[in-house]
Amino acid sequence: MNTIQMQDREAAGIFARELERQRYKLNLIASENYVSPAVLEAQASIMTNKYAEGYPGARWYHGCEHVDEIEKLALSRAKAIFDAEHVNVQPHSGAQANLAVYYALLEEHDTILAMHINHGGHLTHGTKQNFSGRWYKAVFYGVSIAAETIDMEEVGSIALKSRPKLIVAGASAYPRAIDFKAFREVADEVGAYLVTDIAHIAGLVAAGLHNDPVPYADVVTTTTHKTLRGPRGAMIMCREKYAKAIDRAVFPGVQSGPFMHTIAAKAVAFGEALKPEFRDYQAQILANAGRLAKGFAAERFRLVSGGTDNHLILIDLTGEGITGVEAADILNEAGIIVNKNSIPFDEKPPSVTSGIRIGTPAVTTRGMREKEMDMLVGMVSRVIRNKSDEGIRQEVRREVRNLCEKFPIYP
Ligand code: PLP
């Protein structure tokens, strides 16, 4: 940052304040992480200077020989991680990856069946404010009232009634394992494409610690920046028979110039994901989430679905006399960052919510383990249960800072 410091003090000041925030606050946002210094370097590299519309060996610009090499490296590593037949690493984001997939497989007004956003699905899974709900007819499944898990029989009967052309399996706020094989069976029964969006759980899938969608799905989309711990971006994996349609949908369908610096950073991150330590990291994410679930349950908080199988938990605050947004606000004051989150059948609007979502990928990257998760449970509980006590927030803020000093983001 020295050059920016010398050239542009105003921007440098903002960077410095954000670094301070990342260093000394505890990040429990389930969709965030800290990339390695190597991924950060790749993302900030000279690869940003190059235009490369097209694909390796078939570009619309000259001078692409080295960006071709880096894109091919990203592709071969992604294939090796997920055992995918075909990969496209160009989508700028998860939303754009999903856009490209629908663009490749659907016509306007076709029916898609996906998880409702209020039950844990994503905006791009048919929400009416999003292109996916505006251009396609979206039908939804959710979780059952009793178990708060996806009821595959219900998914099957909704599919039989609505005859979707495409079914999406995947979520942004679902603490349980997803049965991709069962989704395949439903898709086969109604002749639908199966698209799995593993944005959140990609790292767990890569490490073999979550059901693998690749053998069952026609297309798999994922972001690269969540549990996978790569740069902000996405990729699409698919069976060979959809390769052309998917590639054409990404470029020239919905994107033009790919972000070659981001693709370079994806290559470096995928190299990290192929190392044995990556599996240990993912196993610790799971162990930490399990420990948080146990700790919050012992403190008598109600967890949606009673616990977790993955990297996140959802806490229902209905009985605590505090809304999701209030809890997230006061936790932030105490140096702990979480999302407010709707819980299934939430009576409060999405801007308020009755729940919070807590995830372990980022704190696990810092090196925290079960002992620190126990401390976290104590800190979160104290803040939420003493919402009018400013002093408690100050006290927790100091404890958070001490903990962060012991577990630096870039040692
Ligand atoms: N799909 C799922 C399941 C997600 O959780 C997200 C992001 O939270 C996305 C897609 C979209 O990713 P992006 O924010 O990169 O567009």
How would you explain this protein's 3D organization?
- The protein has 411 residues and is an alpha/beta fold.
- It folds into 2 domains: 40-273, Aspartate Aminotransferase, domain 2; 278-406, Aspartate Aminotransferase, domain 1.
- 45% of the residues lie in helices and 14% in strands.
- It contains 16 helices and 15 strands.
- It has helices spanning 2-7, 9-24, 37-43, 65-82, 94-105, 131-134, 152-162, 180-190, 202-206, 243-254, 260-273, 276-298, 324-333, 361-365, 370-385, 390-406, and strands at 26-27, 54-55, 58-59, 86-88, 111-115, 137-141, 166-170, 193-197, 219-223, 234-238, 302-303, 312-316, 336-337, 339-341, 355-359.
- Helix 4 runs parallel beside helix 11 (260-273).
- The longest helix is centred in the C-terminal third of the chain and has 23 residues, at 276-298.
- The radius of gyration is 21 Å and the shape is globular.
- The chain binds pyridoxal-5'-phosphate (PLP).
Helix and strand composition category: alpha/beta
Adjacency order of strands in the biggest sheet: 4-10-9-8-7-5-6
CATH structural architecture of the largest domain = 3-Layer(aba) Sandwich
> Distance between termini?
17 Å
Uncertain segments are: none
CATH topology of the largest domain, which one? Aspartate Aminotransferase, domain 2
